[in-house]
Amino acid sequence: MESFLQQLINGISLGSIYALVALGYTMVYGVLRLINFAHGDVYMLGAYFGFYLSRVIQGRTPSHLLDAAAVMLLSMLGCAVCGLAMERFAYRPVRKASRLTMLIIAIGLSLLIENASQLIFGANPKFFPQLIPETHIQLGGLMLTNQQVIVLLTAVTLMVLLNLFIYRSRTGKAMRAVSFNLDAAKLMGIDTDRIIALTFALGSALAAAGGILVSINIPGIDPLMGVMTGLKAFVAAVLGGIGNIFGAVLGGLILGLAEVMVAGYGSSTYRDAIAFLILIVILLFKPSGLLGKGQVEKV
Amino acid sequence: MLNTGKTSFPVHPLTLLTACLLAMAPALTGCNKKADAPASNEILIGHYGSLTGATATFGQSAQMGIEMAVDAINASGGVLGKQLKLLVEDDQGKPEEAQTVATKLINKDRVVALLGEIASSNSLAAAPVAQSNRIPMISPGSTNPKVTQVGDYIFRVCFIDPFQGLVMAKFATNTLKLKNVAVLRDIKSDYSVGLANFFVENFAKLGGTVVTDISYSAGDKDFTAQLTAIKAKHPDGIFIPGYYTEVGLIALQARKLGITVTLMGGDGWDSSDLWKIGGAALNGCYYSNHYSVDDPNPILRKFVADFKERHKNTADTIPDAMAALGYDAALILADAMKRANSTQPDSVRMALAQTKGFMGVTGSISLDEHRDAIKPAVVLEVKVDDKGNGRNVFKETVSP
After folding, report:
1. CB contact under 8 A, B248 and A220
2. CB contact under 8 A, B256 and A3
3. What is the mean pLDDT of chain B?
4. Do A263 and B249 touch (CB under 8 A)?
5. Chain A interface, mutation test: which of B222, B233, B247, B272, most A Cβ atoms within 10 Å?
């Protein structure tokens, strides 16, 4: 039982990171109907920004938590700028072209970032500095560290904030309008270019947060760390119903739990295989994802 | 488009033919050169290794050792009156890249012998290339038995995993008095799977119980699921025959989950990056290795001193086992060329096969009929301070 609860916590920690990254996929898909394959690499960039920032920041603020917060916020800002640049220079020029063109650009951009990062940061793994000194928290037979708790709380806080922003603010409303119908939103006087740019910035900042949070718990970072996480977050987004914010969170948690339970109780060799099998099964029965609405495609 | 003609076949056939001939020309002259034997004053040898990637310190260390040996040989007059010239290629720690760069070194650069790799999966990918081109290959540190089974051109200067697995099984049973051990292996690595099997087999023979035997995949970052499953079995030790990047992360996560038992591993742990990543989580853990930097053997003391002198302005002042093995591999190759009195790959191969009692820095090296070295192994204890500065403390030597 203890071991099961521990696995549950492991799964939720892992799933909350997938959820943060999946949010970026789903938001961009919502406004542009584009799978931004470079999103996983933004997650990696976030971790690297954090790595270099913490060298400068660590020890400069009164407490470890402030150190970590400053590193995370600045890195989120850095990635938001990257997201804006990506949208402005890679996607906006081809927005009127066929959707396939954008998709190919996304794949190309992803490869470009991965390989440029190997050149710039070096292809060797780097070790993320310990921003928050580790203390153990014992809950019955359960073992937690303060880092895990902080990571989980931060992930949940970010998701709640995002939700408030999208459903309670004017800009969030505009974002939903753009996602509902781009042309109609434009006719209603919404500056759609600005909203789309903002969506990229927001999604990229969340991915950066994911990258930092993962690195606090698991300090090994490398230029290809975004490939598998990006792919799994994409799966999580599709699983939950792409374009749906709650779906991304739900998908992330399901995927994280599935992976951990398979590795913990089944065979860790089939960890990824079974996680993806779940995706296939769910999509067979509900092609639009768990929370996705079935849409009639206009031809 | 260069050709603006509207014909469906825009390139003239003669142009194509000329292009083909031009493309073939270097290949043809290349063949001729080989047949004539180069008149140059250099002997080309190749090293392929993981200079970047998840096992980067293996390739970098081996390269440092090989360079040092080549410089020493050249300074003392070279081999057969010629200077050795070392060409190095990075395989990024990937088997498919290892195969590509080994092919390049053999077919394009025309090296007479190959040195590499450390990771067994990479050696296994490149060995068939060396074998089919009849170029001798010496692996400095691949311990999986299958590597030299590829063919009679493949050699190694290190011990093999059946022995290493026995060493750690004996150490766990006799020295650490462990009864119930969990095994966590890297399912993607030939080295890890092989070593785990040999450990399990020997540990059971010695009366121990393997309480659980589970796996991860190289490149994984999150091992909490496996470690939680291991914790539930209450082992008194965990054997992790992986490479240092993953082992460091596993050690960290194990301590986070409250697993305090001893972790053990093999020579794949030998890297200064292990300390950087795992830090204090690795204190009191043990692994088997090819040599200890504290060994009083005078050949080794000289090697360690020379290495320090050579790298005094860098961070790498203490040679790890891969550097020492790289050094020995290059020396044994030069020795075989001298004994063969030739650099013809086939003569070098026959001389290599007869290597007996070569005094290297990792001990006396004799190659058996399987082209594997018969050598003792050492067990080291990892000690890391809070700042990530680590060192390995010699525990014991086990002879075959």
Report:
1. yes
2. no
3. 88
4. no
5. B222
CA A290 from chain center: how many Å? 19
Nearest CA in chain A to B57: A124
Q: Is the pLDDT of residue B337 over 70?
A: yes
Tell me: pLDDT of B201 over 50.
Answer: yes
- 8 Å CB contact between B239 and B181: yes
pLDDT category, B32, cuts 50, 70, 90?
A: very low
Both tokens of A129, joined, read: 């500095």
Task: Please indicate whether, in this complex, the C-beta atoms of A264 and B226 are within 8 angstroms of each other.
Answer: yes
User: Tokens 């025309």 — which residue?
Assistant: B110
Rounded Cα distance, A70 and A58, in Å: 9
* DSSP assignments along A209-230, one per residue: HHHHHHHHHS-EE-TTHHHHHH
Q: What is the mean pLDDT of residues A186-205?
A: 94
Question: A269 and B217: CB-CB below 8 Å?
Answer: yes
Give the dihedral of Cα atoms A28, A29, A33, A35; nearest 10 deg. Answer: 90
Grouping H, G, I as helix, E, B as strand and the rest as coil, residue B145 is: coil
Question: Which residues of A fall within a CB distance of 8 Å from B276?
Answer: 127
pLDDT of residue A295: 59
Contact B168, B198 (CB under 8 A): no
Confidence grade of residue A296 (pLDDT, cut at 50, 70, 90): low
How big is the CA angle at A20 (ends B278 and A107), to the nearest 5 degrees?
90
A114/B contact by beta carbon, under 8 A:
no
CA atoms within 13 A on the CB side of B16: 5
Pick from A262-276, B172-186, B274-288, B332-346: least confident: A262-276
Give the residues across from B289 on adjacent strands. B378
Q: Considering CB atoms only, which of A136, A148, A220 is closest to B249?
A: A220
Give the C-alpha separation, A210 to A242, whole Å.
19
Nearest CB to B52; choose among A123, A145, A228: A123
Query: Looking at the complex, does the CB of residue A148 fall below 8 Å from at least one CB of chain B?
Result: yes
The larger pLDDT score, comparing residue B2 to residue A250, is at: A250
| CA distance, residue B99 to nearest chain A CA (Å) | 19
Residue B332 has pLDDT above 80, yes or no: yes
A217-226 in b/e burial notation, b at 16+ Cβ within 10 A? bbbbbbbbbb
Give how far Cα B124 sits from Cα of A107, A229, B138, B367, B381, Å: 32, 29, 12, 19, 30
Cβ-based contacts under 8 A for chains A and B: 92
Are the Cβ atoms of B221 and A264 closer than 8 angstroms? no
Q: What is the mean pLDDT of residues A34-55?
A: 94
- Interface test with chain A among B221, B233, B245, B250, by most A beta carbons within 10 Å: B221
Q: What is the pLDDT of residues B156-187, one digit of tens each?
A: 999 999 999 999 999 999 999 999 999 999 99
Nearest residue, CB atoms, A268 vs list B54, B56, B215: B215
Angle at CA of residue A169, ends A165 and A175, nearest 5°: 75
CB contact under 8 Å between B273 and A125, yes or no, is yes
Assess whether pLDDT exceeds 70 at residue B5. no
pTM of the model: 0.86
Quote ipTM for the complex: 0.85
pLDDT for residue B134 is more than 80: yes
Residue of A nearest to B216 (CA): A268
